[in-house]
Specification:
- α4 runs parallel beside α5.
- This protein is an alpha/beta fold.
- The chain contains 16 helices and 14 strands.
- The model has no long low-confidence stretch (mean pLDDT 95).
- It folds into 2 domains: 157 residues, 3-Layer(aba) Sandwich (Rossmann fold); 216 residues, 3-Layer(aba) Sandwich (Rossmann fold).
Length: 402
Amino acid sequence: MSNTPSFAAMPNEEGFFGPYGGQLVPPELKAIMDDINQAYETIRNKDSFKTELADLFAHYVGRPSPIFHAKRLSQKLGGAQIHLKREDLNHTGAHKINHCLGEALLAKYMGKTKVLAETGAGQHGVALATACALVGIPCEIHMGQSDIVKEHPNVTKMKILGATLVPVTQGAATLKEAVDSAFEEYLKDPQHFFYAIGSVVGPHPFPKMVRDFQSIIGKEARQQFLTQHNTLPNYIAACVGGGSNAIGMFTAFLNDSAVKLVGVEPAGEGLNTQRHSATLTKGKPGEIHGMACYVLADDEGNPAEVHSIASGLDYPGVGPQHSYLKDIGRVDYHSVTDEECLNAFMELSRVEGIIPALESAHAVAWAMREAPKHGSDVNILVNLSGRGDKDADYVAERLGLA
């Protein structure tokens, strides 16, 4: 154990991680958020809820997800050994199902009549549509038109699962606009609707709640790695947009000072351009979507238009806990360009037979960059947060493989 601060009590009762987080919403909406928090705190401690969720994780999602030693990739790169936490093998193909099941069960417990959400790459949308089909609650997904075109396989899945898909055409028509649109619909009847936020962002209690549901990733990984190797990994890497898969992995290791935690953001077309989404690398403390966090803003102080080849990462804010972990230096945040991401996508596919999501490929790219700097006794564990089925056609067209 280390002398780093204990993180068990975070956030505080007002939903703050240091100066970040909170409930920056109108008073009437604050009351609704407080109701959700109270319901969550009640249900999370019920044995019946814990049993039901654990049963669904095991027999519906397929948990625990395995850790795979990418031996061929490690050998080709030389240096550190790369290991993959295979969240891509979960039902629906990504980590998103972990919190979507929890949110759908909570919505059912609260008697809500409709579950609303935004989605970028569509993984949250598919997972939520799946969870809502399972518990029998209507589901409405707002998705930017740009992402609808890019991530068409997930659009089809959402429709098959019974979700209502709302195309969003304002602005850049990507994730930020989808959040705005879904929140606007939610405000029409927050008493009866449930907004299932897709990451560790938004007003309290969502950053806490989504983190808690996703923390299963790190709990499993820590035990699995100790069992397999009798030690902990030297590095853990995960991609960061809003930050749910990363915080889910990091949480179990925060007090292990010997384990270096690395969040990997999208540098897009370059950090020296306006075409990136590297919020923690290039942003500043600000406010967005009901929370205080690091924000990429334009000259007028409004959230900037952002870009990433990975639709699930193009968000101008970031989870408040990530903002705090950056400030205290517990997590290092790096960035990877679109081209590095594409290279990692193809390399993992052709060397290990694993097609990663473009989001996850950012973390793989960082590991590929880092591994040659170390000896073979160093271990890097990458959270492979999703599979690349949704991206295959887009990548093939971009690289001339179609």
